[in-house]
Amino acid sequence: MARRTLGSWISFLIKISVLAFVATVLCILLFTLANFSEHADRLLLGFKMQDDQLTKNELISLHHFYELSRKWKVQRLADKYLFADAPFYEANDFYLTGDWRKTQDSLEKKLDDPRSYLYGAAKFREAQGRYRSGEKEKALQFVLREVASDFERDLRSCLDSSEVSSETDRPLGGIYSSDDYLKCYDRVWNYDIATNKKDADEALGGKQPQPKFILGPPKLPKGKIPVEMDGKEKKPGAGEEGEEKPGGGGEPKKP
């Protein structure tokens, strides 16, 4: 059996080192991507739950990943594949905190993108504020004319986006199918409200729904004695019927 030379050992060690380095880099990359995906999902959850604190924390985390991609010299790839929705995260955050003007400003140059639907929603919220301050007719007309136009654009953008069926898949050469409208149901809902005077008026003046059930014991008027389910009043400190106090029912029964 031929003995290995010094050169062959060096070549072998170099190959092992390269493989170990590549494996380490891949593990770090996969771990980073998994961590990024988790924070992105939590951010979307924060938007859906309208949790401004969770949203703020996750935006800070995603900013860390963005800076990391810049340090690793892969910012162009990150912008294309990881942070494609980043310009809309800020708009969602502004909307969540009730800053309607900043929401509109951040989306004003992206109105053709179906993800810019919060632009019209922010204008509706502004009109709602004016409606509740007394400018009812002015706010209503603003919604029926201008906001309705924004909602129509949002609906068409959603229907034409790649997320729904392509035009070649639509029946009758371009007529939208019912599946398309189901996938854009929130835009359809907004458009229907803004184009109906009665619905728009009710939406502008609508109040937050009150809870149907109150958790915890009911609050009784002062001095009111609680009534048991069988309708009998229970005296404070009373035990079983005939007892002067709990546990005081005379001699204990023998087993």
Question: H/E series, N to C?
Answer: HHHHHHHHHH
Report the average pLDDT across residues. 78
Radius of gyration: 32 Å
Going by helix content, strand content and strand pairing, the class is mainly alpha
- According to DSSP, the number of beta strands is 0
User: Helix count?
Assistant: 10
Which geometry do the CA atoms define? elongated
Stretches where pLDDT is under 50 for at least 5 consecutive residues are 164-173, 208-214, 239-248
Main sheet makeup:
none
Layout: helices, strands, pairs:
Layout: H1 6-49, H2 52-71, H3 75-81, H4 86-96, H5 100-107, H6 118-132, H7 136-160, H8 178-183, H9 185-194, H10 197-205
Helix pairs in contact: 1-2, 2-4, 4-5, 5-6, 6-7, 7-9, 7-10
Sum this structure up briefly:
The chain has about 260 residues and is mostly helical. It has helices at about 5-50, 50-70, 75-80, 85-95, 100-105, 120-130, 135-160, 180-185, 185-195, 195-205.
What do these coordinates show?
It is a single chain. The chain is an all-alpha fold and 255 residues long. Mean pLDDT is 78; it is low at 164-173, 208-214 and 239-248. Helix 4 packs antiparallel against helix 5 (100-107), helix 5 (100-107) runs antiparallel to helix 6 (118-132) and helix 7 crosses helix 10. The protein contains 10 helices and no strands. Among the domains are: 19-84; 109-205, no CATH class.
